[in-house]
Amino acid sequence: MRLSVAPIDFDQAAAFVRLHHRHHTPPVGHKFSLAALLDGKLVGVAIIGRPVARGRDDGLTLEVTRLCTDGTKNACSFLYGAAARAAFALGYQRVGTYILKREPGTSLAAAGWKLIGEVKGRSWSCQSRPRTDKHPTEPKLLFEIAA
Which residue has the higher pLDDT, 119 or 95? Predict the structure, then answer.
């Protein structure tokens, strides 16, 4: 049995995230999404979009805003590698992603991504625009891969 990659539309990728992601809802949009298939069965998705942090949104950087699998062995590192190759083929120079500090990052390291640093977790809510947090507000680790 071997993993293969295929394009997937945003609605299908978002539905998979809603079903399987441990702590996130789907993002609002994407540049593109990829599916990991095992013998034709959908076992994971990567949703790739513009960086969430304005300072990283330079037009040459993308971000894996969601990566989600059903637990299939090696599907995470497979999708991180596929996302980077697709982004570089489109002319982007860097791809980043954030994971919770308590997560090991093994799949990212296996795919050749490097730990860039730690960012403080915070709420998106502010006095001028109150919001209900639907995401973990704990510290996160930023990983990146460059072309």
Answer: 95
